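In response to the reviewer comment on reproducibility (Comment 2.3), we provide here a single inverse folding case reported in full, input and output, so that an independent group could reproduce the run without further information from us. The structure tokens appear first.
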């Protein structure tokens, strides 16, 4: 039995691997020249710029997600995991706040900064401890769970439920606003977009406190290459530079794909791990939408997406003495394209010596951006180029102010805009994750099955908001579970 998978991102590779492990012939068709999709990195003038992982959920040996990463070859005993003592720092007026991974250190540090916030600090730290018990369900897809599965999941989550009920109802901005210290407010609103549920902030800190959110040495592209290698070692085939134009249907059944060059390929099942919007509205012409999908793609207030500009500096300088991730107040503001913000975050990679030789390092920042603003300028190549140059210069000035040793040591600059994500990944709205989990958004997941169409499944981050690599790898596993169920086959590995 044959499966065609659209897209060689992490979700597509995961689906291909589990397909092979369960005896299916699998072919993956990818528009780009390399694997990983948005799990990527690139080289410019001898510098490596990572375009994806800041931290990876599932790096703790024995965690449920770690088992999946190991099954697909992303992690193994040869891959060193780097865990930091703190998530990031925030600096304003020569005062620096650290978001420590250790909860006791975090509490002590925050209390030194703002003793009057003792009640809020105590709540935050207790919530972090409680949410440590939460692990992403990986064994079964939500729609494949039975009553006992849900009971088991609720028992594991029981210590966290008290906090989830409150945190799910408010935004990161509102949660941080409870703190009396403006410095702590700003520290807590620099990492996660302010309109996300507060749960996103606390659970992320909890994952790092649990030791399950480290950095895999080698970065994003190396991780994607390992998953590709695992897939090919199982006999799976990948066809690069093979953009899918349409999904072929006969009656109510998906039977294959039509490539841009006119080639047709047929299979028993078609799985799309490509961008959700491109799949539904371009490859399938918007013919198979349920109410949830219609809402997700039209209600931008309750289900917003997020995009940014990545400015990468290649610097001939060792920045090891500085925090690996730092946010700074920028009183004059900085415009990333249609949106102006008064803080900026920098991340260097001197902690990973496998990325570049010698004193070379990358210093990378992401600036929130407006997709329509960038799309309009992209239509005028000169204007587009000048805006990229403006932003690059603004970032260089701020970087040299914050890191004085960079003077005359910035050797290359690279700017990736929302339109870069469109060009290379066909990403809707230039988004590198799916819809934000907001307090007002009620849709939790998409089953991947479409009304009126059989033998077809969606998978990937657009089926499990807010997306990211963990949802990509897990939904790739889940889609093969669903196909095995239809074919009355026992899914393996069923751990």
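Designed residues, in position order:
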């Amino acid at each position: 039995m044959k499966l065609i998978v659209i897209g060689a991102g992490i979700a597509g590779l995961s689906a291909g691997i589990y397909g092979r492990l369960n005896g299916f012939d699998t072919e993956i068709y990818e528009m780009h020249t390399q694997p990983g999709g948005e799990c990527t990195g690139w080289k410019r003038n001898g510098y490596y710029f990572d375009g994806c992982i800041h931290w990876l959920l599932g790096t703790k040996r024995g965690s449920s997600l770690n088992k999946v990463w190991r099954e697909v070859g992303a992690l193994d005993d040869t891959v060193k995991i780097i865990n930091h003592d703190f998530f990031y720092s925030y600096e304003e007026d020569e005062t620096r706040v650290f978001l420590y991974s250790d909860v006791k250190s975090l509490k002590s540090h925050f209390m030194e900064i703002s003793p009057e916030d003792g009640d809020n600090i105590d709540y935050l730290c207790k919530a972090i401890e409680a949410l440590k018990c939460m692990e992403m369900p990986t064994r079964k897809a939500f729609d494949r769970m039975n009553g006992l599965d849900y009971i088991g999941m609720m028992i594991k989550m029981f210590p966290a439920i008290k906090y989830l009920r409150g945190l799910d109802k408010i935004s990161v901005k509102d949660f941080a606003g409870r703190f009396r210290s403006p410095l702590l407010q700003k520290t807590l609103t620099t990492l996660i977009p302010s309109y996300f549920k507060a749960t996103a902030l606390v659970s992320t800190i909890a994952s790092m406190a649990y030791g399950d959110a480290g950095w895999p040495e080698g970065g994003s592209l190396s991780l994607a290459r390992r998953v590709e290698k695992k897939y090919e070692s199982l006999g799976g085939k990948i066809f690069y530079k093979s953009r899918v134009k349409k999904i072929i249907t006969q009656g109510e059944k998906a039977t294959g794909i039509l490539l841009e060059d006119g080639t047709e390929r047929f299979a028993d099942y078609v799985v799309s791990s490509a961008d959700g919007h491109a799949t539904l509205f371009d490859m399938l012409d918007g013919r198979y939408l349920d109410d949830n999908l219609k809402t997700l793609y039209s209600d931008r207030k309750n289900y917003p997406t997020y995009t940014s500009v990545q400015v990468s500096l290649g610097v001939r300088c060792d920045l090891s003495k500085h925090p690996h991730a730092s946010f700074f107040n920028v009183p004059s503001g900085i415009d990333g394209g249609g949106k102006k913000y008064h803080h900026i975050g920098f991340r260097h990679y001197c902690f990973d010596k496998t990325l570049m030789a010698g004193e070379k390092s990358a210093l990378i920042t992401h600036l929130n951006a407006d997709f329509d603003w960038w799309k309009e300028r992209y239509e005028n190549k000169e204007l587009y180029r000048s805006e990229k140059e403006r932003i690059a210069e603004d970032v260089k000035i701020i970087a040299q102010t914050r890191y004085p040793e960079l003077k005359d040591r910035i050797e290359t600059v690279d700017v990736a805009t929302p339109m870069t994500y469109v060009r290379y990944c066909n990403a809707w709205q230039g988004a590198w994750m799916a819809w934000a989990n907001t307090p007002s958004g009620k849709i939790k997941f998409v089953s991947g099955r479409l009304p009126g169409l059989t033998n077809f499944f969606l998978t990937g981050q657009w089926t499990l908001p807010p997306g990211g690599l963990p949802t990509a790898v897990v939904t790739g596993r889940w889609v093969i579970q669903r196909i095995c169920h239809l074919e009355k086959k026992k899914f393996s590995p069923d751990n």
